[in-house]
Amino acid sequence: MRDRNTTTVAELEAIIQARAEHIRRQIEAEHSVSHRFYLAGRVLNLENCLALIDTALKGYGDESD
């Protein structure tokens, strides 16, 4: 039985992707240019997290869980 405090890689990726999509929708609705840039930076950070996860998994034969 899996510990309820553990998250699989697939779950983590889904959470990050959902958050990035939510922020993208905020960018579309935002009127302030400076705040749009701030939000875009947050999306980039999340996308970098996904890239780091993918890079880390390459060393482990893509063991997702």
What report would you give on this structure?
- There is one protein chain.
- This protein has 65 residues and is mainly α.
- It has one domain.
- It is 72% helix and 0% strand.
- The radius of gyration is 15 Å and the shape is elongated.
Task: Please name the defining characteristics of this protein.
single chain; 65 residues; mainly alpha; 2 helices
Topology record:
Layout: H1 9-29, H2 33-58
Helix pairs in contact: 1-2
Number of strands: 0
Overall radius of gyration: 15 Å
Low-confidence stretches: none
> What is the residue-mean pLDDT, rounded to a whole number?
88
Distance between the termini: 13 Å
Structural category is mainly alpha
Q: List the secondary-structure elements in sequence, H or E.
A: HH
Q: Oligomer, anyone? A: single chain
What fraction, in percent, of the residue positions are helical? Answer: over 70%
In a few lines, what is going on in this structure?
The protein has helices spanning 9-29, 33-58.
